[in-house]
Amino acid sequence: MLYIIRAARDFCRNDAGAVAVEYAVIAMALGAAIAVSISALSGDVGSLWGTVASFF
Question: Which positions, given as ranges, span the membrane (predicted)?
Fold first, then answer.
């Protein structure tokens, strides 16, 4: 019984996986920000390339 209590206590104190989860959340947020900015700027970039192409 004492072994189970110690194992449960050690499991609750272990935070090694929390860092990986935090990095995954940061990566997901950065990916979403990049996707939103690309979709927001896609029309502007397309018209810019159209203007540049009209000079040639």
Answer: 20-41
Q: Which residue has tokens 């004492």?
A: 2
Residues counted in the chain: 56
Encoding tokens for residue 15?
A: 């935070």
Given a cut of 80, whether residue 5 has pLDDT beyond it is yes
Both tokens assigned to 3: 């072994």
Digit-coded pLDDT (tens) for 13-44:
776 677 778 889 999 999 999 989 888 877 77
Three-state secondary structure call for residue 37: helix
CA–CA separation, 56 and 52 (whole Å):
7
The model's pTM: 0.53
Query: Token pair for residue 20?
Result: 């990986």
